[in-house]
Amino acid sequence: MKSDNIISYSPIADSEAIISEANKSSSAQKIVLAGNPNVGKSCVFNYMSGMYVDVSNFPGTTISITRGHYKGNDVFDTPGIYGVGSFNDEEKVARDIILSADVIINVVNAVNLDRDLFLTLQLIDMGKKVSVLLNFNDELKKRKIRIDTKKLSELLGVEVFKTAAVDKQGFEKLNEAIEKAKVGNQELDLHFMLQQVTNKSISQAEALLILEGDESIAKKNNTECGTADERERIYIGRRNRVNEIFDAVEYEDSKKGEIFNWFGRLSLNPITGLPILALMLVLMYFFIGDLVSQRIVDYTENTIGRGFFEYNLKSIVAEHSDTKIDVIQFDTEGNKIGNKSFIFTEGLNSNEPLKKEFEHYSKVEGAETHFQFSNFFLKLLFGEFGIITMTTTYLLFLLLPLVLAFYLIMALLEDSGYLPRLATMLDRSFNKIGLNGRAVIPIMLGFGCITMANITTRLLGTEREKSIVTAILQFVIPCSAQLAVIAALLSGAGISALLLYVSVIGTVLIVLSTVLNKMLPGESSPLLIDLPAIRVPRIDNILKKTFFRSWGFMKEAGFWFFIGALAVGLMEITGILKVWQNILEPLTTTWLKLPKEAANAFVMGMVRRDFGAAGLFQMSLTVMQKTVSIITITLFVPCIASFVVMLKERGLKEGMIIWTGTWVAAFFIGGLVAQLVI
Amino acid sequence: MANSTLDKARKGMPVTVVKLPSGDIKSQLIRLGISEGDTLKCIVRLPGGTIVVKKNRHEIALGFDLAKKIKVILQ
Q: Which among A11, A121, A390, A660 has the fewest CB atoms less than 10 Å away?
């Protein structure tokens, strides 16, 4: 549970696929980097693999397994772990890669040697060939700590190399570290016990995990796994050996080297931590809310996506097919100044003069062009909700900039060491709704993209926590696309509208999470996280992380956006979309007291949440009508992509309950407010 | 010296761990370097009872519900 990989992970099946794929090149050695979180593993990995890295993470989100090549060998990076086991999904992935390794390079944080050696000894107990990199060697000098590496190497029975990842000091010895990797000193009693379990099909490494109670490894080998007591006994024995080794090799010359972590302390305590959080949020708002989601996305989506990509693609499609084209011209203030319809029954190319006129008319600054194809398949592929046109614009020109921005911020917060402290500070408040502080991560991401956040719920400890967070995300958290429109609507509506909106949504949040916390069986996992030192993040690591995670997300979610678009396209062509509108109309006019066109906005909200909100923007509504409609649209169903991803993550039953619940909540609560204030 | 639980610790107070709760969480604590018999220093106690302890040179945060289950001797 650490910031290093706080939002990365992938299911096991995939890691197995990747490992076995790597098996094909048989002469190459499989070198695996293993270590606790924040020990500088990725620096070593980046150094070894250079620019060319395969990121493999199919249905797992973000980076899970990165593979590079180093001098003819495969190098694998693993998520940071405190021990090999199966306490969470990250560990399972790391475990599978470690089991398949020929050589393990164990990266150790020299400053926290006592903590990190637990994993080192476990790797040695597995009987794997290991070399240790004692990283953060530069920090040791600053802190006036000495470590007797010769003695450490003797006690462990493996080579120990001093490195400082920051300036790549000692990295020239990596070759030697790989060549000289060897099986280390194992505790005799334990080794003897392992020999009883080890046989042709069970390696010593697997035997150790079986003895330590890893059910899935035991099952794979058709054998019984050790009890929890047995694991505890082995763990305590190992911890004691760590302490003995640590006492024998480490000397602290003076306490003066101790660094007091002012910022770390300040960000923990609510009195100073809350203002720090507020400042962070304001900065985030300016970066994501203002710069990226308004200015950048406005340009990429409208100018590049619609204006260039869709316009040209649709024009080509229209050359030979029956098409009706509506062009609306706007002035710089956004007022409509003219519109024209062009009808090409035989396609654009059959009527050159009209084509010229159309091109001339539609290329005026600020013109909006709507193509209507009469052919069923063309409509499905290239129409308003076309699988090719809408999904491409949405994924590449709207979502991608937002996802990049959000992952960049997350990487900065993680690598600086702030995120675990934020989780700690907020822990107690999250406890009240059956969560622990780590839930802050998916919820924060939800303000970017609910789909992204739905996938990130995987980092939570128990199923009940995942259910609670998934429900909160679908019900009350507006995504960035929607937030922009909500903010625009609210800004003209005054303070009372804002207060009403915030208090209604806040009440729903509290009631919903309290009810779920009471209703769902079981217990939530408690907070237990290591707080890494606060440090200035390394820009290359940040960029690499941002890129890999965004790539991982787009690869995983992209497909579901296509499925979503296909569903909507079919609904539109078959007229089901119209049926929805007709069903919602009476509810909208009588119960929500909104004009009947608002029903259209709600139906569009099922496709893309901001479509729904944007639809409201064009209507003339009173202040309270605006408030009611944004309350309704916030509570209303998530967009089609997050709906599909939610079904995949949480299962059909739970997904449908949440989805239906958002319908009921949106109309019931929106209506209740309408009856009271309009 | 008094038998107590970790959530009762105050800022700056050294505590000796007497008993950890059983189950997976115990293994996780041992991995992080918190075992029975160890002496830790409580460096922060947040309102509500979230505890941050220091073991040698690293800091670990524990939720209130977990801290409540760890038996310690306050010094």
A: A660
Best residue in A239, A241, A277, A422 to probe B by mutation, most B CBs within 10 Å? A239
pLDDT category at A256 given cuts 50, 70, 90 is low
- C-beta atoms of A235 and B27 within 8 A: yes
| Residue % of chain A over a pLDDT of 70 | 92
| Averaged pLDDT for residues A260-274 | 86
All residues at 6 or more sequence positions from A620 whose CB lies less than 8 Å from its CB, including other chains? none
**Are A451 and A557 a contacting pair, CB within 8 Å?**
yes
Cα angle: A209, vertex A214, A218; to 5 degrees: 85
Pick the CATH number of A3-185 from 3.40.50.300, 3.40.50.970, 3.40.1110.10, 3.60.21.10: 3.40.50.300
Contact B58 A115 (CB under 8 A): yes
Kindly list the residues from chain B whose CB atom is less than 8 angstroms away from the CB atom of residue A424. Answer: 46, 50, 52, 61
Tokens 């972590």 belong to A261
Q: What is the pLDDT of residue A19?
A: 52
Q: Indicate the Cα dihedral angle A529, A534, A540, A546, nearest 10°.
A: 40
Q: Where are the domains of chain B?
A: 2-74
Rounded to whole angstroms, the Cα distance separating A596 from A616 reads 11
Mean pLDDT of A325-354: 86
3 state DSSP class of B37: coil
Q: Which residue of A has its CA nearest to B51?
A: A424
With beta carbons under 8 A apart, name residues in chain A contacting B52.
268, 424, 531
For residue B18, the number of C-alpha atoms closer than 13 Å in the C-beta half-sphere is 14
Q: What average pLDDT does range A634-642 have in this prediction?
A: 86
What pLDDT, on a 0 to 100 scale, did the predictor assign at position A61?
33
Residues of chain A with CATH 3.40.50.300: 3-185
pTM: 0.85
- In CATH, the number for domain B2-74 is 2.30.30.90
| pLDDT at res. A20 | 52
Residue closest to A294 by CA, chosen among A484, A84, A525, A45 = A484
3-state secondary structure of B34: coil
Averaged pLDDT in 10-residue chunks for chain B of 75 residues: 87 94 92 93 92 92 95 91
Instruction: Kindly state the helix (H) or strand (E) to which residue A21 belongs, with its residue range.
Output: helix A12-23
pLDDT tens sequence across A418-446: 989 999 999 999 999 999 999 998 998 89
Q: Structure tokens of A34?
A: 């293993």
CB contact under 8 A, A265 and B28: no
Q: Which of A115, A231, A527 sits opposite B63 (nearest CB)?
A: A527
Separation of alpha carbons A651 and A639, rounded Å: 17
Reported ipTM: the value is 0.95
Strand, helix or coil for residue A224: coil
**With an 8 Å Cβ cutoff, is A230 touching chain B?**
no
